[in-house]
Amino acid sequence: MSILSSPWPARAAAAIGANLLFSAAGLAAPAAGSGGVPAMYATQAEAEKAAKLHFNCTGAHKMGDQWMPCAKHGGAQGSSHPH
Predict the structure, then answer these.
(1) d(CA 55, CA 47)
(2) What is the 3-state secondary structure (H, E, C) of the chain?
(3) What's the pLDDT score for residue 76?
(4) Between the CA of residue 57 and those of 2, 24, 42, 51, what are the distances in Å?
(5) Kind plus residue range of the DSSP H or E element containing 69
(6) pLDDT at position 35
(7) Which of the residues 18, 56, 62, 82 has the least number of beta carbons within 10 Å of its own beta carbon?
(8) CA dist 59 to 43, 48, 65, Å?
(9) Mean pLDDT of successive 10-residue segments in the chain (83 residues)?
């Protein structure tokens, strides 16, 4: 039997692809109730509070119609990735 006639390589590839897809989707935003810290807030006050509590920075900045912690993008100490 050749590897091309066996169905398991295709199934394995599909399973790996699905796992990668779901993993990437999980990185985009924490699931509700997961204990993750959101990065977008409805008000400036909420974003400023989160900046102090969770992001080791101060202030907040507008992003579309919501607010993000820190006075400027990427302002958190130790933050290596821009949003």
Answers:
(1) 10
(2) CCCCCCCHHHHHHHHHHHHHHHHHHHHHCCCCCCCCCCCCECCHHHHHHHHHHHCCCCCEEEECCEEEECCCCCCCCCCCCCC
(3) 65
(4) 59, 27, 18, 5
(5) strand 66-69
(6) 74
(7) 82
(8) 12, 5, 17
(9) 64 59 44 78 97 96 96 68 49
Which residues sit opposite 43 in a β-bridge?
none
Tokens of 39: 């990065």
The residue type of 53 is L
Structure tokens at 62: 């507008």
| Whole-angstrom distance, CA of residue 73 vs CA of residue 6 | 50
How far apart CA 67 and CA 83 sit, in angstroms, is 13
State the CB neighbour count (10 A cutoff) for residue 39.
19
Query: How many residues belong to the chain?
Result: 83
Among the listed residues 42, 34, 58, 83, the one whose alpha carbon sits nearest the alpha carbon of residue 50: 58
Question: Among candidates 32, 41, 39, 33, which has minimal Cα distance to 55?
Answer: 39
